[in-house]
Design goal:
This protein has 18 helices and five strands. Helix content is 46%, strand content 7%. Strand 4 (96-103), helix 5 and strand 5 (128-131) form a beta-alpha-beta unit. With 430 residues, it is of the alpha/beta class. Helix 6 (153-167) packs across helix 10 (250-268), helix 12 (304-316) crosses helix 13 and helix 13 packs across helix 15 (355-366). Strands 3-2-1-4-5 form a five-stranded parallel beta sheet, sandwiched between helices. The chain has helices spanning 23-30, 43-46, 54-71, 84-94, 108-123, 153-167, 213-216, 229-234, 239-246, 250-268, 290-298, 304-316, 321-334, 339-349, 355-366, 381-388, 393-398, 414-428; strands at 7-13, 35-42, 78-82, 96-103, 128-131. The radius of gyration is 23 Å and the shape is globular. Bound molecules: flavin-adenine dinucleotide. Flavin-adenine dinucleotide binds next to helix 8, helix 10, helix 13 and helix 15.
């Protein structure tokens, strides 16, 4: 006798781990079948990560809470760990899948994964719908009058705001709990998935901070930023809901627009993933001194603000934006280490790691990117510290041995490093 399979529409959670204001989920709910909520721990990604990766712990905790919400209504999350195509073959054998919905992901790996899943589902006659969710404007929605992409932030922001005033996308009512299929699945523990809990936790975001954001955002000791990074990365808040709250705070809104600016740069110029945005910088002879790079990573450069930032990153998975700029500039210019080394280290450590933002900002500090800081602008770490941490509140927290003999001498003298950087950049310009 043939086993009866339940007819479902699948909603595939990826970087949108919430039930509220979720566009793809809303579309699935609007469809003709009960919705099977699915998450796949993608082994192509997880195999590259350490077992105690803090982002995996956060994803697992968030999924657990989603599963609890679903269980209260007689449903459950179907959560597996697999290579996506292999996983989808099993899913289509287990269920009578009528349609698949997901939110679009614009990173190169995600695009190629979705293409292959699309082809597979098509071969089984199953439609796969991808919709816009993680941004207000995607792909080529914000372009110049001649339809070319913007490569400078300010005109991009102006156009973004013009379009936003016309469209104002509202949050999606996607949390109708009656639409989920009434099936039970056991939710896997972290260790069953091959991971263990990380000591680093993702803090909750602090939306109340956006009220004073314009005044406090540049002072690392004040913790005046929203800490939304990982929540935007993994979609534990919907962008439409957020922008609605951010609308009256233009400085803060401007940062959310930077996020979309770099996303569209990655979309239009995918070469930035492993090349300079501006090829004329390809000739820079990086020193790439491995020992100096280690000292930078460990926070032992002898420049207190650089060391404080790196230690904050290593201990918490977060670093304040002002300090990210200082440590990034220091690595590329003072030490003449290729920005790709710094980018890769941040990708490993940051809870809010986002390919487009990390790449865009690293290329910005290195001077190789679109709308980048000019190459001859070399941040003076001491002047930055005097301006943004004058009482050493931030530095004392992370570098308690500052005044002791245990603290290293500067790895390089600022004036010499600055001149060396300008020479190397000038020489390397093609
Ligand atoms: P807030 O200041 O409260 O800003 C709110 C949100 O706006 C952020 O969460 C982020 O989504 C967005 N945002 C703010 N500043 C930027 C910016 N300059 N570029 C793009 N988006 C921005 N941000 C990431 O999200 N992921 C990264 O991997 C990342 N790497 C960076 C690397 C370098 C070298 C530098 C200089 C910056 C990087 N940033 C990155 C940008 C910025 O530092 C972080 O977004 C911010 O510090 C996160 O803290 P928050 O959520 O409290 O930000």
């Amino acid at each position: 006798m043939q086993e009866h399979k339940t007819a479902v529409s699948v909603f595939w959670f990826r970087r949108d781990l919430r039930l509220e204001d979720n566009h793809g989920l809303y579309r699935a709910i609007e469809g003709d079948h009960p919705v099977l909520p699915l998450f796949i721990f993608d082994t192509n990604i997880t195999d590259e990560l350490p077992a105690d990766d803090a982002r995996i712990s956060f994803i697992h905790k968030t999924l657990h809470s989603l599963n609890n919400q679903l269980s209260e209504h007689g449903s459950a999350l179907f959560c597996i760990k697999d290579e996506p195509l292999a996983g989808w073959k099993k899913i289509t054998e287990k269920f009578d899948v009528k349609a698949v919905y997901a939110n679009e992901d614009y990173e190169p790996y995600a695009k190629s994964r979705d293409n292959s899943i699309h082809d597979f589902l098509k071969s089984r006659g199953i439609p796969f719908s991808l919709v816009k969710d993680q941004v207000i404007f995607e792909k080529a929605e914000v372009v110049k009058a001649d339809e070319k992409p913007y490569t400078v932030y300010t005109p991009y922001r102006n156009k973004w705001q013009d379009l936003f005033r016309e469209e104002r996308p509202a949050p999606y009512p996607s949390d109708d709990m009656h639409s989920f299929v009434k099936l039970q699945f056991r939710f896997p523990g972290l260790s069953e998935l091959g991971f263990r809990s990380s000591g680093i936790k993702v803090p909750d975001y602090k939306l109340e901070r956006i009220a004073d954001y314009a005044e406090t955002r540049d002072i690392p000791a004040l913790a005046g930023t929203s800490r939304l990074g990982p929540h935007l990365r993994f979609g534990t808040i919907g962008i439409r809901t957020l922008v609605k709250k951010a609308e009256s705070y233009p400085v803060f809104l401007g940062e959310l627009i930077w996020r979309e600016f770099f996303m569209q740069i990655l979309y239009h110029f995918p070469h930035v993933v492993d090349q300079n945005f501006r090829p004329k910088y390809d000739g820079i002879a990086w020193r790439n001194d491995a020992e100096e790079f280690e000292r930078w990573k460990e926070g032992r450069t002898g420049y207190p603000i650089v060391d404080a930032g790196m230690r904050e990153l290593n201990s918490t998975g977060f670093m304040h934006n002002r300090v990210r700029m200082v440590v990034g500039s220091f690595l590329c210019k003072h030490l003449l280490v290729d920005w790709k080394w710094g980018e890769a280290y941040f990708a490993e450590k940051l809870l809010d790691y986002e390919l487009s933002s990390n790449n865009g900002n690293w290329q910005w500090v290195a001077g190789t990117g679109c709308d980048a800081s000019p190459y001859f602008r070399v941040f003076n770490p001491t002047a930055q510290q005097q301006k943004f941490d004058p009482k050493l509140d931030y530095i004392n927290k992370w570098v308690p041995e500052l005044d002791s003999t245990g603290y290293p001498e500067p790895i390089v003298e600022h004036r010499l490093a600055r001149e060396r950087a300008i020479r190397a950049y000038k020489k390397g310009l093609l």
